[in-house]
Structure to design on (322 residues):
């Protein structure tokens, strides 16, 4: 038995176990030897040999290979999960030693299209200037993704969060409002009561988690109005564009419609019946707060400090339709 676990046996002293683990993780995440080879700038056969050497040293099969796809074995799943954390911890250690704690490495952030472009993108230049060692990998989609499956470090999520293993930091909150373009209102008129919406095109969401109604308060009682079946989308920017084009009414976050409301390109309706409920936005992540890599913690702290939605909690009177 090798008395020192950190000293390789003579036959294995030429092996780079860190590089082997990096290579395996890349193959598992990318789903192919060729994709990992391109990322590592080596040949696919070289990547295949590295993984085979790792399997031989561990004495287990990590990947099931076929002509069309790769599948992880149970042992491969375990090595991927713990290996990614090990690599992250090593990079965090390197950061602390070589850059006096300055965060370095890749931080993957997932957000909806509208949140990504309107809330996150304007902050990216400042974040990169503050932490030049960071590399950001941004993915914008209105489909809710699993952070672990998507290999995301942070996700920005609107609304109440379901119970899960994720940890959340509240970044801000915003009022929800019913909006339309002046052109639409001129042609179709303004609804005066929530029930008037049945005579208007309501632009809603088409993804499974969407709430199928708009909430109001009428004479102190809650009332739910179906958002209709005429026009539905799965992208926040597309919904905003449809409103601007005069296609119908939509229920948007005040922060999302703020620029258009300021410019008079949208108007708010039925505000007297607004529930006043504020929708929160959280930065969510998987892991314990005290055990996060320095790079992830730095981005979370930056977002907590720099995201300011206080302006979107109350509606200025001039935004209301006359």
């Amino acid at each position: 038995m090798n008395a020192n676990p950190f000293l390789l046996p003579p036959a294995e002293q030429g092996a780079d176990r860190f590089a082997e683990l990096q290579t395996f993780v890349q193959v598992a995440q990318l789903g192919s030897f060729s994709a990992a080879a391109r990322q590592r700038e080596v040949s696919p056969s070289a990547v295949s040999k590295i993984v085979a050497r790792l399997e031989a040293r561990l004495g287990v099969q990590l990947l099931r290979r076929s002509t069309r796809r790769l599948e992880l074995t149970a042992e491969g799943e375990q090595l991927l999960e713990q290996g990614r954390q090990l690599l992250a911890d090593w990079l965090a250690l390197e950061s602390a030693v070589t850059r006096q704690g300055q965060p370095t490495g890749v931080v993957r952030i997932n957000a909806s299209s509208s949140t990504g472009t309107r809330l996150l993108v304007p902050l990216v230049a400042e974040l990169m200037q503050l932490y030049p060692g960071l590399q950001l990998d941004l993915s914008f989609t209105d489909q809710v993704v699993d952070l672990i499956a998507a290999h995301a470090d942070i996700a920005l999520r609107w609304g109440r969060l379901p119970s899960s293993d994720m940890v959340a930091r509240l970044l801000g909150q915003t009022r929800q409002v019913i909006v339309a373009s002046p052109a639409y209102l001129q042609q179709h008129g303004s609804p005066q009561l929530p029930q008037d919406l049945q005579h208007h095109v309501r632009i809603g969401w088409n993804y499974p988690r969407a709430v199928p109604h708009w909430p109001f308060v009428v004479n102190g009682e809650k009332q739910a109005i179906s958002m209709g079946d005429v026009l539905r989308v799965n992208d926040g920017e597309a919904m905003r564009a449809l409103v601007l084009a005069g296609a119908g009414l939509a229920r948007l976050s005040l922060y999302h419609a703020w620029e258009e409301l300021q410019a008079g390109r949208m108007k708010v309706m039925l505000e007297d019946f607004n529930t006043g409920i504020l929708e929160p936005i959280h930065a969510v992540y998987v892991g314990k707060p005290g055990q996060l890599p320095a790079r992830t913690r730095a981005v979370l702290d930056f977002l907590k400090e720099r995201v300011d939605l206080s302006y979107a909690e109350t509606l200025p009177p001039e935004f209301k339709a006359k």
Notes: Residues 1-15 have pLDDT under 50 and may be disordered.
